[in-house]
């Protein structure tokens, strides 16, 4: 009996050892082919480890980013939710609109400005060296609307970008307690200014920026717009601008409303005369001078058709993309690397890796689609446009580098037919 037990014991032990060896071989093969950290022959171990940790760190970064982006975005109020003031006894607002070759949109846009319910306003349109029918259209509209004041600029002084000079010229003519800088293609709801001024007064603000609703045609164009809006929100964090202790600031070319006194005490656009990103940098200037500012969403209240095509959008963003990074090639390289690693690699890694690494990349993609879908929803666009994220990111990278290289090769930028020297652009920093 002892012998039987002994033989049975050794037989079972042998079978178990074979089974363990089998499972070990299978596990090693599985872990190796699935790109886990362990690789039996250690030939791919280093690469697998790197991809795993790259995906893990990327996921942590994206979770932190996504959480802040969502919570910050939820804290942005919509202008349409602001109640109308109880009285028409409101301060005078001077609306300043620069226009250079805007024959396509200016009549429709100005019609909405003239239809504003805000009674105590003056409208100043600065025709900045237009060569198309802009001057003719403005002349006709001014004859029909005495409230519309049109000024013509024939020559651009040295040391100025055209739009910046036109806005500053308009500010010098303005009589209102408040200034509203806007563009010649912006459409307004009739109640927009009443709501904005009430919000400014109730919150004791010196500056209010309102983000417009961008209405585009075409699937790819809307996809790219959603990507751009998300990147802009990530870069600027506009929900932090209202915090006096935060260094974050905001400015929007479509709607920069400020106290006239704050504008003149900030140093004015003369300080940023050569900045293509004048709207954002004006917000920075006001914030640095200690003025209180805030940001609201203008969905359903302020809107425009930003660009008619993807090509136009790429060309339109060429002028100021390099400027955003202070014409610094190192900064461009860093932001490009970050975009390739965080925004584009997960889509590639989801196909080239397996196991845990693949799951990490899949989690990153899921968070991305949730965040970009959230952006689309908050801007009256279909969340399905978020599916264009990888294509949109590649186009943004292309814009960044095309803007950089073109600016360096041309030693400056061409904007609306005028060349601006890179040396002067680089010197104008705040």
Radius of gyration: 28 Å
**What is the count of helical runs?**
14
Could you give the order of the helices and strands? HHEHEHEHEEHEEHEHHEEHHHHEEH
Decide which structural class fits the backbone. alpha/beta
Mean pLDDT: 89
| Low-pLDDT ranges | 1-44
> What can be said about the biggest beta sheet?
7 strands, mixed
How far apart are the first and last residues' alpha carbons, in Å?
94 Å
Shape: globular
Q: In what order do the strands lie side by side in the largest sheet?
A: 3-2-1-4-8-6-9
Report what the structure shows:
With 430 residues, this protein is α/β, with parallel strands linked by helices. It contains 14 helices and twelve strands. The strands form three sheets. It has a seven-stranded mixed sheet with strand order 3-2-1-4-8-6-9, sandwiched between helices. Strands 5-10-7 form a three-stranded mixed sheet. It has a two-stranded antiparallel ribbon with strand order 11-12. Helix 10 packs across helix 13. The longest helix is centred in the N-terminal third of the chain and has 32 residues. It is globular.
Topology overview:
Layout: H1 2-33, H2 45-74, E1 93-99, H3 106-114, E2 121-128, H4 134-144, E3 148-153, H5 162-173, E4 178-181, E5 187-188, H6 192-202, E6 207-211, E7 213-214, H7 219-236, E8 256-259, H8 260-266, H9 278-288, E9 293-297, E10 302-304, H10 310-324, H11 329-352, H12 355-378, H13 389-410, E11 412-415, E12 418-421, H14 422-427
Parallel strand pairs: 1-2, 1-4, 2-3, 6-9, 7-10
Antiparallel strand pairs: 4-8, 5-10, 6-8, 11-12
